[in-house]
Amino acid sequence: MTRSPAIAVEPRPGLSSPLPGRALTLGFTIFYLSVIVLLPIAALILRACHLSAAQLWALATNERALAAYELSLGASLIAALINAVFGSLLAWVLVRYKFPGRRLLDGLVDFPFALPTAVAGLTLANLFSEHGWLGRFLVPLGIQGSFTQLGVVIALTFVGLPFAVRTLQPVLENLDQSVEEASACLGAGRWRTIVSVIAPTLFPTVLTGFGLSFARALGEYGSIKFISGNLPRTEIAPVLMVTRLDQYDYTGAIAVALVLMLFSFALLFALNWLHAWAAKFQQS
Q1: Digit-coded pLDDT (tens) for 158-207
Q2: What is the pTM of this model?
Q3: Where residue 135 sits, what CATH number does that domain have?
Q4: HSE (CB half, 13 Å, CA atoms) of 135?
Q5: Gap between the Cα atoms of 69 and 244, Å rounded
Q6: From residue 56, how far is each of 42, 53, 163, 242, 257 by CA, in Å?
Q7: Cα(81)–Cα(74) distance, rounded to whole angstroms?
Q8: Residue 92: inside a domain, yes or no?
C-alpha cells in the first residue's frame, strides 16, 4: 500500500492574521485611542498655543506652581520607592509562603483599586488625625499624618501599592526555583543567591512596578484633597490645577496641566529606556 505524497499548501495572500476582521479591529483600535487619548492631548496643546510663551512660562513657573511641582514629584518619588521595596516583599510573601489568611491578604492588595480615592483620603485623614486610631499614638511622638506632607506621601503610597505588587507577582509565580537550588548546590549562600540570581531576574519587573506606581501617584487628586486639608504647604500640582479651575482661571489650569503632561511623557520615555537597559543587563 503506497501513501500519497503530501501536498504542500501555500498560504494565500491576505491571510497572514489568524483572526478575522483585521482591518475592522485595527480601525476601531485607532479610533478608540484617538478619541480617548490623542484628541484630549491635542486639545490641551492647541489651547495652550493661544498663550504666548511669556504668559505660559509665567503661569507655569510662579512660586505657587513650583512649590506644587516640587511636592508632587518628591512625594510621588518617595511613595514609589516605598512601594517598590515593600511591594516586592509583599509579592514575595504571597507567592512563596503559605499561611492562614493568605487569600484575604492577597485580596486586600486590590482594595485601593476598588475604593474611591475620595473615600480613601477621608479614611486616611481620620485614621492619622489627632484623635484617630493611629494618630492618637503617633501625634504625641511628633508624627503628624493628617494635613501634612507626610500625609500626602501616605496617601500616594496607598493608591500606588497594587501596581508594584501585581506587576511583580506573576513573574515570581513563573520563576523557576531550580535555578536557586542550583545556586545553593554550587555553594552560594542565601544572600549571594538573591543578589546574583534572583535580583537581576526581577529587577526589570520591579522597575516597571516602580514606574507605574510613580505615574499613578503623580496624577492623584481625590485622596490628597482630604488628607492635605487644602493647605498651601500640602498642595500638589493636580490640586492646584483643580483649584484654578474652580476660580475660573482656565489659562492657569492649562499651564499646570501642560507641565504635568510633559512630566508624564518624560517619565514614560525614562521608564522605557530604563526597562531596555535593565533587559540588556539581565541578558548579560
Answers
A1: 999 999 999 999 988 888 777 777 777 777 777 777 777 788 888 888 98
A2: 0.84
A3: 1.10.3720.10
A4: 19
A5: 15
A6: 17, 5, 34, 17, 11
A7: 11
A8: yes
